[in-house]
Give the backbone structure.
Amino acid sequence: MKRGLPCLLIALAVSLSLVALLPAPAKAAYKGEYKLSVVVGPKFPWGEGATKFADLVRERTKGRINIKVYTSSALMAGKQTNEFLILKQGVADFAFASTINWSSTINELNLFNLPFFFPDYRTLDAVKGGSVGKKIAALLQEKGVLFLGWGENGFREITNSKHAIHTPADLEGLKIRVVGTPAFIDTMKALGANPVNMNWGEAQVAFQQGVVDGQENPVVGVLIPVQIWQFHKYITLWHYVIDPLMLTVNEEVFRSFTPEDQKIVREAAAEATKWQVETVRKGLIPPDLSALEFLKGKGMEVTTLSPKERKLFIDKTRGVYEEWKGKIGKDLVDEAEKIIGSR
C-alpha cells in the first residue's frame, strides 16, 4: 500500500495538469474585444448611440464584455452594403445598422424605403413595435442575427441649391445625390429628378462645383452635423422615406454570454436606442421645432408640404410603390398598411 502511494500522487498530479488544459468556463472565455460596426462617424447621433450602448455594456458587465465601436464603415472597407454579411460571418460581433444598407440583402427591409409610406413618427413607431417589427426580428434571427432594438436616423428630407420644392414639377431635371438603394433611384426617376449615386465626400465637391443640385438626408441625424447650409439654401420636409436603425448582434456571440450578461446587453440596448431616438427627433416635433429654426437661422428656406401637396408626390410614385410591394412581400406591406390606417 505504501509503495502505491507515490503512484497515486503522480496520477493525481497528472490529472490536475490535464484539468488545467481544459477550456475555461464560458464567463472566462469571453473575447478581449467585441467589434461593433457603424457606417457613420462618432459625432453623428447614430454613432453616439452606438458608443452609449458600448459604454453601458462595458460598465454594467464590469469589463467582461468590452465592445469597441468601429465607425465610418471601418470593418467593411467603406462598402456599407457588406455590413450584414460581416456580422453574419463574425467579422463584426455587433452592428448598429440602417435598414437601407441591409435592404439589398433582406428584401423585407425595403418596407421602410417605400416612397411616402409613413406619414409620421406615430405610425412608424406602431409598425416597428407591432407584429411587423416582430416579423422583421424573426427574419434576422433565421439568418443568424439577433435584433436588440430600434434606433433611428430620421425621415429623409430633400435640400437643393436651386429653388424651393412644393410639387413634383419642381424636381424636374434636378441632379439629386442619393444612396445607391434601387428603391431610392426608382423614386427619384418617377419624380422627374436625375438621381446620382456617390459617396458623401464626392457629393460635397459636386455641390461646390454645381455638378449636383441637391441631396436627401435626415435633419438632425445628418444635415445639421454636415452643415448642409454651406451648400444648399432650400429644404423641403416631405418625409419621403424613413431611415430606421437596428441594433443587432451575431447570434452565436450572444449565446456565448451568460444569462446574466445577456440580460445586461438587452437592457443596455433598450436604454441606448431609446436615448438615440429621442436625440435624433429633438427639435422636429411640435411644439419644439428648434432644429428647423436653427436651419432658418443659418439662412435656409424651410418648406413643409401640406397634405394636399404631399398627395401629389404619393400619386406620382404610385408605380414605384406597386413594383416594390411585390418585391417586399404583399402580406407584409398590407399588414403594415393596416397598422398605419388604424392610427
Observations:
- Confidence is low (pLDDT under 50) at residues 1-28.
